[in-house]
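queue> pop job 88
queue> type: inverse folding (structure -> sequence)
queue> payload:
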């Protein structure tokens, strides 16, 4: 295993490599690839934090918990609410900020603030040739012509190994409240979520649990505003409901898919149009279903080895295997997209060293 302590050492490892490298941050997401492990945890530490500018810069191996603790001292946070996979996957270690950004890990608040990559201001990384590259900066402006910042987020280390990231952070809200609607079917629940998101009440979490027949809607902000919007939302949606204040533990469970943690079956993550969710879940043959992002994200508990993609057929979206064996992790790319992807990999990793075979 390689564990470089500096960006220069990282570049030397990649430049001198003559066999595939399996990139690892904290090792919490269960991603395995061919080759010798190249860990980034040795490159750790917050290099700049400017609360007034709502900007933090950290080395890729910095634990997410360390960043969150530093932000909390200034009443700030990572607004995109990154998922912690350890409970669902039974993994150990510490999630790192480089791993979060490389995989574009976003939680329930994505529906209101955007994805993890939307908070990424700049990156430093080492490409497959061992060259150190910097793109972006500490402000939301990019005039280089190539948005490598967005390209690196979601590439899972296949185009380059992150060494440092610059992030925009946001203030923590004064308070939050969660409306729980009782007794709705999947179709009714998704319709209620859509109605709430179409309202002016600034929903920051929208989920549905078919097993409990509970539909959850979160509102955050200043206390008088939250109270007013919550009362208006209750009137808008009606039905049997109650309000829970400061339901942080509840939403952390949704973020981390805690309801599927103690099972042995395969776990799939499906992105789709929210209105398609119930029909796709019905076709899937799932043993358990959870809806997030107002139905645009479906978590499915499937029988081991079940070919979910074949069961779903063609639809507007994609399925990712989060836990399971002997199946392709990511959705196969269409011919045109695959051609573009191959061209990017040829440019960024000409020797095909980085996380070989992970994304097709």
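queue> result:
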């Amino acid at each position: 295993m390689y564990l470089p302590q500096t960006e220069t050492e990282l570049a030397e490892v990649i430049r001198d490599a003559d066999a595939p490298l399996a990139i690892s941050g904290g090792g919490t997401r269960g991603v395995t690839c061919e080759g010798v492990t190249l860990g980034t945890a040795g490159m750790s530490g917050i290099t700049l934090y400017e609360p007034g500018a709502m900007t933090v810069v950290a080395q890729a191996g910095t634990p997410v918990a360390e960043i969150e603790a530093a932000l909390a001292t200034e009443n700030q946070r990572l607004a995109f609410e990154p998922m912690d996979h350890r409970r669902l996957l039974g993994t150990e270690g510490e999630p790192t900020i480089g791993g979060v950004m490389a995989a574009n890990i976003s939680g329930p608040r994505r529906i209101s603030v955007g994805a993890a990559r939307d908070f990424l201001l700049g990156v430093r990384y080492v490409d497959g040739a061992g060259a150190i590259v910097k793109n972006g900066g500490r402000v939301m402006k990019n005039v280089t012509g190539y948005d490598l910042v967005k390209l690196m987020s979601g590439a899972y280390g296949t185009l380059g190994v992150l060494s440092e990231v610059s992030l925009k952070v946001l203030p923590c809200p004064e308070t939050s409240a969660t409306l729980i609607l009782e007794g709705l079917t999947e179709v009714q629940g998704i319709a209620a979520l859509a109605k709430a998101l179409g309202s002016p009440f600034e929903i920051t979490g929208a989920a549905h649990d078919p097993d409990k027949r509970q539909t959850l809607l979160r509102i955050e902000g200043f206390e008088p505003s939250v109270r007013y919007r919550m009362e208006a939302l209750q009137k808008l949606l009606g039905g049997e409901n109650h309000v829970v204040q400061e339901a942080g533990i509840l939403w952390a469970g949704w973020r981390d898919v805690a309801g599927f943690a103690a099972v042995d079956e395969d776990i799939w993550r499906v992105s789709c149009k929210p209105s398609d969710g119930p029909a796709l879940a019905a076709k899937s043959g799932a043993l358990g279903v959870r809806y997030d992002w107002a139905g645009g994200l479906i978590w499915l508990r499937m029988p081991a080895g079940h070919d979910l993609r074949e069961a779903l057929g063609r639809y507007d979206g994609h399925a990712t295997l989060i836990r399971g064996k002997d199946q392709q992790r990511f959705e196969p790319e269409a011919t045109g997209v695959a051609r573009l992807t191959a061209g990017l990999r040829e440019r960024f990793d000409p020797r095909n060293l980085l996380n070989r075979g992970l994304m097709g």
